[in-house]
Amino acid sequence: MKIQSARVIVTCPGRNFVTLKIETDQGVFGIGDATLNGRELSVVSYLEDHVIPCLIGMDPRRIEDIWQYLYRGAYWRRGPVTMSAIAAVDTALWDIKGKMAGMPIYDLLGGKSRDGVMVYGHANGADIAETVDAVGHYIDLGYKAIRAQSGVPGIKDAYGVGRGKLFYEPADAALPSLTIWDTKKYLDHIPKLFEKIRDTYGFEHHLLHDGHHRMTPIEAAQLGKALEPAKLFWLEDATPAENQEAFKLIRQHTTTPLAVGEIFNTIWDCKDLIQNQLIDYIRATVVHAGGITHLRRIADLAAIYQIKTGSHGATDLSPVCMGAALHFDSWVPNFGIQEYMRHTPETDEVFPHNYRFEQGYMYAGDAPGHGVDIDEKLAAKYPYQPAYLPVARLEDGTMFNW
Ligand code: KDG
Ligand code: MG
Q1: Which residues of the chain have pLDDT under 50?
Q2: Is residue 381 part of a domain?
Q3: Is-contact 356 340, C-beta < 8 A?
Q4: Cβ atoms within 10 A of the Cβ of 192, count?
Q5: pLDDT computed for residue 156 by the predictor
Q6: Which element (helix H / strand E) includes 19?
Q7: What string of DSSP letters covers 279-294?
Q8: Of 159, 168, 340, 361, which one is the catalytic site residue?
Q9: Is 363 an annotated catalytic residue?
């Protein structure tokens, strides 16, 4: 059996997605997500110019060997572009293997560990009242876990605050738009938000919050401590994770659970945080962390330290990634939660899929492979549009973390 052809499909049904399609000489094909938000075309080039020529003629059944070939063979290891490209190949090959075996990917991995995958949705609003309403809306939709973000008085365009009720899309301009940040105002505001949410709805639902790399370790410690009465499921990206020692300081001060890893791309990014038990949830995901083959290694390492998975699942992770992630989540023994931001109806049409949401849980479906396809004719109607994530500056003009 051989890989006969492979091509990259770029489409923008509301936002940009990069999809790799691998076709075999036996008529079976597989697809994988290669979307890297705001840097999409660099992965397209990596795949078209450097990966696809190597793939032609390879045996698609040898998933592990192809993974090692692309990782070790490049000499230049790791990094989001390389690892997203490898992830796309890996996901497409697991899709092919599943279709050949007539099995969903969770069965190839060892079978389901759970019936449904608990997901969290995004509630956000311009102020506390709007966010509290949005949380109520998600509760009405059946969500068991909800991430809450709110506009902060005095801050222009705080992270996580969308324009519509359900579709938050931060990559919103052909060049990065400017947002202004002030951590003090944020720290004063967020505990009030969670106090109000708990006062309104009680403690039945899981609440999550994303700090989006904006705090210093001691500021993160202060916030974690201030949020303890709200009993968060997690506080995410409390401080940038390049210096992983920083998390020791946060840990010394608060019992609020911590989640990190959406921008990690290999097990080496995760290793110290996991081995030192500095986090509770690892957020690496299929598309940015080398596909199912590599994510499995990360999850297994985390399991030894009782750390659970909580994979990234924002709208820039395509339905192909979501499908693969749900198969992974259905299997992985140390599953914690899966992020789920609904895609636009146009995106859902371009990527017909088997997964579904029901009462706070997602179900991967039992189609062979990952159960997601791409309607190429429809995809062609939505050409690529440059779109960048915003940048952030402090009020005095200093460049900051978005
Ligand atoms: O591409 C960047 C987004 O996916 C990210 O900003 C979303 O932080 C995010 C999250 O937790 O979903
Ligand atoms: Mg995040």
Answers
A1: none
A2: no
A3: no
A4: 12
A5: 82
A6: strand 17-24
A7: -SEE---TTTTTHHHH
A8: 159
A9: no
